[in-house]
Amino acid sequence: MATISERRAAFRGLHASGCFALPNPWDGGSAVRLAKAGFVALATTSAGAAWALGKDDGEMTLDEVLDHLRFMSAVTDLPVNADFEAGFADTAAGVGENVARCIATGVAGLSIDDGGLFPLDEAVARIAAARAAIDRSGEDVLLVGRCEAYMMPMLDVDHVIARLRAYSAAGADCLFAPGVRDLGNITRIVQAVDKPVNVNLTATGLSVNELAAVGVRRVSVGAALAKATYAAFDGYVALLSSAGRLP
Q1: Which of 45, 74, 128, 216 could potentially form a cystine with 24 if both were Cys, beta carbons 3.0 to 4.6 Å apart?
Q2: Which segments of the chain are extended strands (E)?
Q3: Distance between CA atoms of residues 137 and 201, nearest Å
Q4: 30 and 229 in contact (C-beta within 8 Å)?
Q5: CA angle 183, 226, 195 (to 5 degrees)
């Protein structure tokens, strides 16, 4: 079993060159299956984790999230990147305190998003607080600065780039803007920033290889795997309740 330090070092190494798929399990079974399939790292999904508890995305408490991260970091030998949402705090100082608790779960990386697009100065302060907490810990945990581009009424790629650059300057090691799906816009982002870029593959119509070709460093899928699994489950339930049988 790899140590936490070894997993963190391996995870950072994956960001040095090339491109890797970073699928998002939502429970122990899905994590183990993805590990057996040969993936080299995993990322949690706030939506999938919430659904597994019978909640909607955004309804998990901080303690529930920390318990989930602790479990997911222990159930396989792979490094885990935490979807740590907006840091579960109203202030930048609170984000820093919670990031310290997140690091203690054993994760190899964590993302801090801009909470449905906080004002830029506030969002930057929250990334900086997360960076400071990681530095104080002495642990090699990778920080992802995440711009919630899908929250924009109309996608403004220039604004997304400005935010990602600011998050990079505040200490993010990797940058992510879920909601940017066009390959041309993704290419613009990759070329405009100075850190590795994560792209969510969902609904892009693209492949990992196509994203790798334009310089994307890692490719996640968000809640797509959990959503597909629950959709299949619902189909079986509907058949069982309506016809009293299964396929």
Answers
A1: 45
A2: 20-22, 42-43, 80-83, 109-113, 142-146, 174-176, 197-200, 218-220
A3: 32
A4: yes
A5: 40
Query: Does residue 104 contact residue 68 with C-beta atoms inside 8 Å?
Result: no
Closest among 152, 86, 161 to 125, alpha carbons compared:
86
Q: Whole domain around residue 66: which residue ranges?
A: 4-222
pLDDT of amino acid 52: 97
The tally of domains found in the chain comes to: 1
What is the model's pTM?
0.96
Cβ atoms 117, 151 nearer than 8 A: yes
Looking up tokens 């969510």 gives 200
For the record, the structure tokens of 30 come out as 């899905």
Between the alpha carbon of residue 10 and those of residues 53, 135, 140, the distances in Å are 30, 18, 10
Residue 37 lies in a domain: yes
Q: Is the predicted pLDDT of residue 237 greater than 90, yes or no?
A: yes
- 162 has a pLDDT exceeding 90: yes
Kindly report the CATH number assigned to the domain that includes residue 130. 3.20.20.60
Res 1 pLDDT > 90:
no
User: Closest Cα to residue 197, out of 172, 162, 225?
Assistant: 172
Percent of the chain with pLDDT over 70: 100
Q: How far apart are CA 78 and CA 181, in angstroms?
A: 28
The answer to whether position 20 is within a domain reads yes
Residue 68 tokens read as 């989930």
Question: 43 in a domain, yes or no?
Answer: yes
Instruction: Give the DSSP letter string of 81-128.
Output: EEE-TT-S-SSHHHHHHHHHHHHTTT-SEEEEE-TTT--HHHHHHHHH
pLDDT tens digit string along 60-93? 999 999 999 999 999 999 999 999 999 999 999 9
